[in-house]
User: What shape does this take?
Amino acid sequence: MTDPTAHHATRRRSRWLPLVWAVPAAVAVLAAVVLFAIWLRAQPQVQEFIARYPGTTPLPEGAPVGLPAWLGWQHFLNAFFLVLLVRSGLLLRKGGRPPARWVRNNDGLVRTKNPPWKISIHLWLHFTVDALWVLNGIVFIVLLFATGQWVRIVPTSPDIWPNALSAALQYASLDWPVEHAWVNYNSLQVLSYFAIVFVVAPLAVITGLRLSSVWPQRAERLNRVYPSSLAKAVHYPVMLVFVAFIIVHVALVFATGALRNLDAMYASRDDASWLGFAVFAVSLAVMVAGWFAVRPEVLKPIASRMGTVTR
Assistant: This one.
């Protein structure tokens, strides 16, 4: 007879085997990129290019200076909701029998002709946090344009493309571009933030909406044009883009002057004190606690206030 313990151990080893090769391969690729970028920067033509395009595109006249306090709160809430979305998304992708199921009460503010779906409690969490994340995003967009902060993350000059290439080359060669985020982001940051806010985030919302219970299932023509298989194929890679962005973003925050960057984002001041770091540390602790709080004994009492929870 086959030993189930040995079988599970073999499966665990096979699951981690790709990482044994992927990590050294990734390190080797990164080292090759850095060496190639350093060689490129030594070429006279490239030096002339960087001198002409230092990596930052001037902002339009009258652009706001500094980061307002509301942006710090938005930054924290966005990160917190993304952590919960990734956590619940991974649980959903893992599959298996859910610890509980939830069904919406159909006698409250939201009433539908057809009976509501019974879904797993992890899917309930994903949909609930998704709604909060979208609401937070709407507030962010409104404040962004109401306060003029939009000019900091929306490209306003064609020179942003060569400047972004210059900034990428400077990052890759480990000789960071000169920047002062309190006044202006470098061009690569502008393109990255613009893509996340106006491309990747809407893709997450559109694909998530298609996979949710609020999507009209009987709209046959619409469902043929936009099948759920397409939404599934896009939704998970979008999550991976968010994860990759967060990893790179946090790494660069610490590598390019942690205290000053954190002071600007979390304390709304152009300084290098420990206040911003302290606020960041507290927010990080909250996000870690949120990650580990995604447990049936925590989710069930909350979900029961919004519907009926069953096994």
In short: The radius of gyration is 23 Å. The first helix runs from residue 4 to 41. Strands lie at 101-104, 118-120, 307-310.
